[in-house]
Amino acid sequence: MENTGQKSEIKRLNGNPESLLAIILPGICIRATSLASGQTLGVPHAEHQVVLQALVRQLSQLDLELFAKLGSCCVDLLWFALEDPAQTGVLYVDGHTRVYHGKQTKLPRHHVARQRLCMRATTDYWVNGFNGLPFFKLNCAVDPGMIKVLENEIVPTLEEIVPNQPTEDELKKDQLLSRFRIVFDREGYSPGLFRRMNKKRIACQTYRKFVTDRWPEDEFSSHRIKLMMGGEADMKLAERGVLIGSKPSDKIWVVEIRKLTPDGRQISIVSTEWKATPTHS
Fold first, then answer.
1. 157 shares its domain with 187
2. pLDDT along the chain (281 residues), means of 10
3. Per-residue b/e over 74-106, b at no fewer than 16 CB within 10 Å?
4. Most buried residue, 74, 131, 143, 157, by most Cβ within 10 Å?
């Protein structure tokens, strides 16, 4: 992922925002709409310079080594923060198996769900924004699993580049406030991980594993939910605060929200983001 040429160029231009803009300009132009309509990136023409200056100012504050490593994803993430600051703190992490058909090396075997076989493959971990926009990915030839990748690779990077994080004073005043929230599939379910991330004030959200009990159906109530693509759907939801974790060192209180499907199934999601639930929002 590292671009040595770009790194040396950024170091040379450190402290010169106008020159730094020349490096990131391609990424900014991708986001631009037609100038002929008098609009760029969804803001009035008169505000173009102010928005671009704000973007460059935030980019110039990033760690140079990190910026050189991640490249345009920093532009994507910071521009997303300027477009919709309220949604910047929600990021989705998803792992995808990429089958290797070559013969140059013997990679470890992974279960490939779509072919129902164990095949030689690598794993790509994608980090996406609230609107599905991909920011960056990590490729693991030897996959240690989502939990370790989240904790050792993805979270340290997000701590550096996610904009609009609350200050230390804000975190002290509000014990329920999180720096940002990461959403992932059930492979990352781990009460121990939730607890370690909670100490960093990072919220986690995923499907709950090993659900054996059923909640009474009269506990569920209908809610009109706004979907990402703009539509709406009626869902029967219920919410509880539950204590999870089999080991004393892993126990943590989480919000559990269940959806009751028409066929009677109960889909469980747990989150350490208390302020984002229907009851507390």
1. no
2. 40 44 50 42 48 56 52 55 64 88 81 80 86 80 89 91 87 92 94 96 94 94 85 93 92 96 94 67 39
3. bbbbbbbbbeeeeebbbbbbbbebeebeeeeee
4. 74
Residues written for the chain = 281
- pTM of this structure: 0.71
C-alpha of 122 from chain center? 21
- The number of distinct structural domains making up the chain is 3
* End-to-end Cα distance, the chain: 39
Structural domain range at position 38: 1-83
Question: Which of 146, 164, 182 is where one domain is finished?
Answer: 164
Beta partners for residue 267, in sequence order: 259
Q: Give CA 164 to chain center in angstroms.
A: 14
Closest CA to 242 of 232, 229, 256: 256
